[in-house]
């Protein structure tokens, strides 16, 4: 009896060459629906599933391959006499190759306006059943789920090398294929339910119910990185090709490294606090080791970039730069004389690209504002021993209407602007975080110290004489009044902090004694 291959695919890339290769090796072709039509249109002999089973497609095509003559042919173990006897008794022919990829559910729900009914109708049932059956019985059945697998399989088939190792690798890919498919369905349904509950004013309940669901994480391997944080650590990048950093267009430079991606994330989240794309207030950020060493607003991107670089030119060496508007020639001039690792922005003008082309190793990335907007409200994940932590991203807007001035003196208009700016930036500095700013620019940053006054010393010393008349922001409350007293000695005029310490009265009293402003936001922004 000639071997049989069952083909049922929504992605028809490479279908005809695969079928021709199978025919050349003596296989008969069994197919259904659009796949059968495509094979027949190519002039290839094919038996329709309905003819093979003797049962017509029913329910508008919802049921066509769910039949004993299909699943018996796939699942029968060739080395089991009882299985062979069952096949003979029922007149069922074995199926030796199963080529299936599933209804395009992801592509369907990529349309934000897709209806519930359309999405549900694009959930494949028979396809996953055949894939799982073939993968389970991979000792006897080859399962192909990706057109990229076809050429290698045909080469192995022609060479007589379809061995156990290849079958197991293809079975693994098949189970990963159906697992990712189910995860995508569950994620879409969950997202739609949460969205609908939120629009009905029940988002808290939906969020609580969602928190009880298991974490679903199915991401394709995007790139094997040269190494991780250090050369002795291996690393890989998993992510969808059209989402987040996977959607960035690299215009030039070396391939991205593990540390590049970590720093780019820090740079983007910082600059996006001021908007990203058309209409955003021009802002620029310079990142070193995930901390901003310079952040500034400006009249345009070039002005913002120059001011951010001047905040700390020493630390900017080897840094990552993010801008929230188009990089024009003037901004490129500021970048051209520096050693930098990466620059990310919504777009680069042709003149800017020409100016930076000589810096062949500098990575330039265009990231569409839509990719940033789509990431809003995302979960942040971090691995721990034996598990994963997940939290909502701390990317909500600042809410000054809830802030409280607790000092005797009210902030001036300039101080208010600087306090708002400093509060937007300090949340992107590693805790303990202290930031000194004035005129829409950082002057000094203290990050990641074991005590808050230590971070304050670093920030104030970096600011130097420029601290006089500036403001100071703290991501967490002051456990003592020492930071306020240190700020007063350096000429700081206004302080913003979350509040909530038992010793808040001490810090407030210190502000009053030195005619300083203190604003309490009521919200902490630790970043670990």
Key structural traits:
21 strands; 21 helices; alpha/beta; six-stranded mixed beta sheet; 528 residues; single chain
What does this structure look like?
The protein has a six-stranded mixed sheet, with helices on both faces. Helix 4 packs parallel to helix 8, helix 13 packs parallel to helix 15 (329-336) and helix 15 runs parallel beside helix 16 (350-356). It is elongated and about 95 Å long. It is α/β, with parallel strands linked by helices. The longest helix has 36 residues, at 164-199. The chain is 40% helix and 18% strand.
Task: Describe the secondary structure blueprint for this structure.
Blueprint: E1 4-9, H1 15-24, E2 28-31, H2 33-41, E3 47-48, H3 49-53, H4 68-75, H5 81-90, E4 97-101, H6 105-109, H7 116-121, H8 126-136, E5 142-144, H9 150-159, H10 164-199, H11 203-211, E6 221-225, E7 235-238, E8 249-252, H12 258-271, E9 283-288, E10 291-297, H13 301-311, H14 313-316, E11 319-323, H15 329-336, E12 340-345, H16 350-356, E13 363-366, H17 369-374, E14 379-384, E15 387-392, E16 404-405, H18 413-426, E17 434-437, E18 442-446, H19 452-463, E19 471-474, H20 482-489, E20 494-497, H21 504-513, E21 517-520
Parallel strand pairs: 1-2, 1-4, 2-3, 4-5, 11-12, 12-13, 19-20, 20-21
Antiparallel strand pairs: 6-7, 8-13, 9-10, 9-11, 14-15, 16-21, 17-18, 17-19
């Amino acid at each position: 009896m000639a071997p049989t291959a069952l083909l049922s695919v929504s992605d028809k890339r490479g279908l005809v060459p695969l079928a021709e290769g199978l025919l050349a090796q003596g296989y008969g072709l069994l197919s259904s629906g659009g796949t059968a039509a495509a094979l027949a249109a190519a002039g290839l002999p094919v038996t329709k599933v309905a003819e093979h089973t003797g049962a017509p497609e029913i329910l508008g095509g919802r049921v066509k391959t769910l039949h004993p003559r299909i699943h018996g042919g796939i699942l029968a173990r060739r080395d089991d006499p009882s299985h062979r006897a069952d096949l003979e008794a029922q007149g069922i022919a074995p199926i030796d190759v199963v080529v299936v990829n599933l209804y395009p559910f992801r592509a369907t729900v990529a349309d934000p306006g897709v209806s519930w009914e359309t999405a549900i109708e694009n959930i494949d049932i028979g396809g996953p059943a055949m894939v799982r059956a073939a993968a389970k019985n991979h000792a006897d059945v080859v399962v192909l789920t990706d057109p990229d697998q076809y050429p290698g399989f045909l080469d192995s088939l022609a060479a007589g090398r379809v061995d156990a190792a290849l079958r197991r690798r293809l079975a693994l890919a098949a189970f990963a294929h159906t697992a990712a498919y189910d995860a995508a369905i569950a994620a879409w349904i969950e997202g739609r339910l949460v969205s609908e509950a939120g629009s009905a004013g029940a988002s808290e309940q939906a969020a609580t119910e969602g928190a009880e669901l298991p974490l679903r994480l199915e991401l394709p391997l995007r790139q094997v990185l040269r190494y991780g944080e250090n050369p002795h650590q291996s690393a890989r990048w998993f992510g969808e090709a059209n989402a987040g950093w996977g959607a960035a267009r690299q215009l030039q430079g070396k391939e991205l490294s593990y540390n590049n991606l970590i720093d780019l994330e820090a740079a983007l989240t910082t600059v996006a606090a001021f908007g990203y794309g058309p209409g955003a207030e021009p802002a620029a950020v310079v990142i070193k080791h995930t901390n901003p060493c310079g952040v500034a607003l400006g009249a345009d991107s070039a002005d913002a970039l120059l001011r951010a670089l001047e905040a700390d030119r020493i630390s900017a060496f080897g840094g990552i730069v993010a801008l929230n508007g188009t990089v024009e020639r003037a901004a490129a001039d500021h970048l051209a004389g520096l050693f930098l690792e990466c620059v990310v922005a919504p777009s680069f003008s042709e003149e800017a690209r020409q100016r930076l082309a000589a810096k062949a190793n500098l990575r330039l990335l265009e990231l569409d504002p839509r990719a940033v907007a789509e990431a809003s409200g995302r979960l942040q994940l971090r691995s721990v021993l034996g598990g994963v932590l997940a939290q909502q991203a701390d990317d909500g807007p600042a809410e000054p209407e809830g802030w409280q001035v607790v000092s005797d003196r009210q902030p001036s208009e300039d101080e208010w602007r600087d306090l708002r700016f400093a509060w937007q930036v300090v949340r992107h500095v590693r805790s303990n975080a202290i930031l000194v700013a004035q005129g829409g620019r950082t002057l000094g940053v203290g990050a990641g110290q074991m005590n808050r006054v230590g971070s304050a010393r670093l920030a104030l010393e970096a600011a130097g004489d420029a601290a006089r008349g500036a403001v100071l922001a703290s991501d967490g409350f002051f456990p003592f009044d020492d930071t306020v007293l240190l700020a007063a000695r350096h000429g700081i005029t206004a302080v913003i902090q979350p509040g909530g310490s038992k010793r808040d009265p001490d810090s407030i009293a210190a502000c009053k004694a030195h005619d300083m402003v203190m604003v309490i936001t009521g919200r902490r922004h630790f970043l670990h």
